[in-house]
Automatic annotation (TrEMBL):
Record-given protein name: BatD protein
Matching PANTHER family: BATD, PROTEIN BATD-RELATED
Presence of the UniProt keyword Phosphoprotein in the record: no
Record InterPro entries: BatD (IPR025738)
Keywords from the named record: Membrane, Signal, Transmembrane, Transmembrane helix
Keyword Transmembrane on entry: yes
Residues annotated as signal peptide: 1-21
Source organism of the structure: Lacinutrix venerupis
Membrane spanning residue stretches: 445-464
Domain of life of the native organism: Bacteria
Length: 588
């Protein structure tokens, strides 16, 4: 008996190891040590088809290509060999040890994960130059045009980034690899609404260019300040020596790094001569006003006094003068408001402080004159603007300084308060609690309801449990319901990722695949165009709707290799949603 028991245990271990060896999901890298200027290929491969592949975040790397999907399916000596691979091409951001985290996938309802791999990134290495890359580098230039290199402190300057491309070179895509921080500047980006191709000259030669970004800067320190370069990785298309069957020259795609270069701004301090003592750093061209919402009111009513500065300059960076009022006026903390827009000319608009004032006594109260000083860039001198004096006339109310024993308001005598022995009669010292509901709870309707409800709930609980067990045992139904949930989930993720090409089309493709699995009861390995077309036709779906569905799947595959605008992504999303809706209505 012991021998039989040992044999059974051994067979169980062997069978378990064989079953676990059937599924392999692993990470392969092109190299484990590479230079900062090299590219890394990462392959996630599996020997059995699966669903819902999730790649790692690739911290410390930029994704320059992928995900590319490939499937190998072959038969050798009657034995099937299958491999599916997701490939990514990465560029390291920094030197050191970087980790490729685990990827995950679901295969037959089980989630598998790959092992993590550590990549060592060294300094840049010398590589033989690709002739196409040399041509593209000579024909593509990123330029930062600065409006003024010697501004005053707090004077606005603009930086316009232009990408120049020679006529015989094309650009299909680009991405930022290094975004300047603008240390020691107040900055705001003004991104163009659309990229407009314009003609211009670069080093005396004709070029085409697009404006990628506009940035407004206000220097916050004097001296030499550095604007770090904006860096891009541009996918360029350059002509080769090969031609197609029609004699047209073939194009080659190369990745070209470009940078706008480092610029130094020499910021001048504001002159000391003539600087007012109350100067708060305002630079520009301004107007200053002090206004009140009321001129006349009664005591204990409120009014608003508004101190505002409007015009053009560093409005968000200046300090407004404080309002000082007599002690007989109750003043609350001001409410600050900004109505400022930023354009290439700098900040324009208005900033204000609104004070709520409540007078306590009758009389006339002057609001003292206040002033605002600023540095005028046109005349390069300091200017001061003073407000007019405002009078607040309180018509009715107590007179300040009158005897408190005689008057509470003008002509109104004060009444003495007479106390009596019943002044604390509202406090009950003895409890007299009487129940208003004299009916007994025992043997009442509520009593029997509370007693019998748990017993009546037992059959319902048994029925609910049996249905749940039945549903848990329905493997096919659960798989279809899960696919339907995943379809809705990924469709929602695609909508959130509009504008991000890779994430959008990966989510949209997953949504479409899971939708077909739920509707047609098929596996991922059966998701071929012919099988989809045949099954949808058998379920009486119109041919035009089937073609639209196939076109969306093709767009998901092609979009990874072609430049796509947000408008095109929105169109593909709307088309996918409407096509799914039509299939739901037509399918039988």
């Amino acid at each position: 008996m012991k021998t039989i028991k040992h044999i059974a245990i051994l067979l169980f271990i062997l069978s378990s190891s064989i079953l676990s060896a059937q599924v392999q999901f692993q990470t392969r890298v092109s190299k484990k040590t590479l230079g900062l200027n090299e590219r890394l290929r990462v392959d996630f491969s599996m020997n059995k088809d699966g669903d819902n592949f999730n790649a790692p975040t690739f911290d410390g790397f930029d994704i320059v290509g992928g995900p590319n999907q490939s499937v190998s399916n072959s038969w050798i000596n009657g034995k099937r060999s299958f491999e599916k691979t997701y490939s990514y091409f990465l560029a390291p951001k920094r030197k050191g040890s970087l980790m490729i985290e685990s990827a995950s996938i679901e295969i037959d309802g089980v989630t598998y994960k790959t092992n993590s791999i550590v990549i060592t990134v060294t300094k840049e290495i010398q590589k033989p130059k690709d002739p196409n890359s040399v041509i593209a580098s000579d024909n593509i230039h990123l330029v930062a045009e600065i409006s003024k290199t010697n501004p005053y402190l707090n004077e606005a300057i603009t930086v316009v980034y232009k990408l120049y491309v020679a006529p015989n070179t094309g650009v299909s895509n680009w991405r930022e690899t290094d975004d300047p921080e603008y240390d020691d500047f107040w900055s705001q980006h003004i991104n163009p609404k659309g990229l407009k191709i314009e003609r211009g000259q670069y080093n005396g030669e004709d070029y085409q260019y697009v404006v990628l970004r506009r940035t407004v800067l206000y220097p916050q320190k004097t001296g030499k300040l550095t604007i770090e370069p904006l860096r891009l990785n541009v996918t360029a298309e350059v002509p080769t020596k090969r031609r197609d069957i029609f004699g047209q020259r073939l194009m080659s795609k190369v990745n070209v790094p470009v940078a706008a270069g480092k610029h130094v701004i020499n910021v001048k301090p504001l002159p000391e001569a003539g600087k007012p003592l109350d100067f708060s750093g305002a630079v520009g061209d301004f107007k200053f006003t002090l206004s009140t919402s009321k001129k006349e009111l009664n005591a204990n009513e409120s009014l608003q006094a508004k101190v505002s500065v409007s015009g053009k300059g560093n409005l968000k960076l200046l300090s407004l003068p404080k309002l000082t009022l007599p002690n007989s006026l109750e003043v609350y903390e001001p409410e600050h408001s900004e109505n400022v827009r930023t354009s290439l000319a700098g900040m324009q608009g208005e900033v204000s402080d609104s004070y709520t004032i409540v007078p306590q006594y009758k009389g006339k109260y002057p609001i003292p004159t206040i002033s605002f000083s600023y540095f005028d860039l046109k005349t390069e001198t300091y200017k001061r603007i003073s407000s007019n004096e405002n009078i607040i006339n309180v018509l009715e109310g107590p007179v300040y300084g009158a005897s408190d024993n005689n008057l509470t308001a003008e002509g109104a005598p004060k009444q003495n308060v007479i106390l009596n022995n019943d002044q604390f009669a509202f406090i009950k010292t003895e409890a007299n609690l009487v129940s208003k509901n004299k009916a007994q709870f025992f043997k009442s309707t509520a009593f029997w309801t509370c007693l019998l409800t748990p017993f009546l709930a037992i059959p319902l609980a048994i029925v609910f449990r049996r249905k749940r067990e039945k549903r848990a045992g329905d493997v096919v139904g659960n798989r279809l319901r899960k696919a339907d949930r995943l379809s809705k989930k990924y469709l929602s993720e695609a909508k959130k990722a509009l504008g991000q090409k890779e994430a959008f089309y990966v989510s949209l493709e997953k949504a479409l695949h899971n939708y077909l699995k739920a509707k047609l009861n098929i596996e991922t390995s059966d998701l071929s165009k012919e099988k989809i077309r045949t099954l949808l036709a058998e379920r009486e779906v119109e041919n035009t709707v089937v073609l639209d569905f196939e076109n969306i799947l093709e767009n998901c595959e092609l979009a990874r290799y072609t430049p796509i605008t947000t408008v095109t992504m929105q169109q593909d999303y709307d088309k996918a949603a409407s096509t799914i809706n039509l299939i739901d209505k037509q399918i039988r």
